Amino acid sequence: MISLDHLAAHLGVSSPYVKDESSRFGLNAFKVLGGSYAMGRVLAQRLGQELSELPYPVLTSSDTREALGTLTFVTATDGNHGRGVSWTANRLGHKSVVYMPRGSARERLENIRALGAEACITDLVYDDAVRLAAAHAQERGWILVQDTSWPGYEQIPGWIMEGYTTMGAEIMEQLGGVRPTHVFLQAGVGSMAGAMAAFLADCYGLERPLIAIVEPDGADCLYRTAAADDGRLHAVKEPQTIMAGLCCGEPCGIGWEILRQHADAFLAVPDEVAATGMRILGNPLTGDRPIISGESGAASRGTVTELLRRDCYADLRRDLRLGADARVLCISTEGDTDRDNYRRVVWDGRYASA
Predict the structure, then answer these.
(1) Is residue 240 pLDDT above 90, yes or no?
(2) How many CA atoms lie within 13 A of 338 on its CB side?
(3) Candidate list 31, 127, 336, 338, residue with the active-site label
(4) Is 78 assigned a catalytic role?
(5) What is the rounded CA–CA span in Å between residue 86 and residue 278?
(6) Active-site entry in 20, 78, 127, 220
(7) What are the structural domains, with CATH classification, of the chain?
(8) Where does the Tryptophan synthase beta chain-like PALP domain start and stop, copy by copy (predicted)?
(9) pLDDT by residue (tens digit) across 98-138?
(10) Is 19 a catalytic residue?
């Protein structure tokens, strides 16, 4: 947990906290928390035991591998989730297959392959890559580990979301009793945002922080669903954004149900806002610690910064109660998982704000 005290003074708020997930297990992102936990639950279920009875040495033992055989886990990903799934499969002695949507960064693909996965970039958008993974799981007897849900496929996504709440427990410990007044959560399908919103509501009850959901304006399925308020999920047909981890067109059903109850605001932001967040975190004010944050990781911090420093958002600031006593928490969910694009944004000024 990093407190950017000089940025807080500059923006006129009490505290801007950032939880930095770039060092998680050497994978440069938080996503492995969900996939690894869900895969552990799958193995425990197949063994007829509780996961608490299966510490890592048991899960990776020759007896366990003999009892389970070699399993194949399959998923679709823009990068971080698939890397977590392939890392976990590799360590547990199983196989993984990963499908990536068109436009995925080559670096992200090679990072997944380096962990032993059979991985490829398809010509599909993310949501269709998810459908491909689901179809192949059914046809070939593989285990689908997908971080989104739909009717009939909810148990494993639920476990993934439970795994994400590890971040919540760490945040509580790291804040040392300080209660944030605002939490800004970036969202793709909404599984991480839903998991964290549920955790915050459970921990703080009626005193929970204001929860704001941040999406790319080119992939704002949750914003559209919230705006319609008609009991249906609303999709974006051709999602487009530099925020690869958030470039999803269809909401996670169980994530949305949580957000519908606990999120206070839904914000759709242009790519320039994420780029601003990357530059501010990577090149902070003197005295603040730099944070290497990727396009998806910096989206929430960029949003908060723009809200606080631009006069055109004065009414929105008031509605969100972003004042001098605000203690704002953001999660930098990834580091520079696409280093070439990180340099284009941070070094070369690509996607500069007006």
Answers:
(1) yes
(2) 23
(3) 31
(4) yes
(5) 27
(6) 78
(7) 2-29+158-346 (3.40.50.1100), 32-146 (3.40.50.1100)
(8) 2-315
(9) 999 999 999 999 999 999 999 999 999 999 999 999 999 99
(10) no
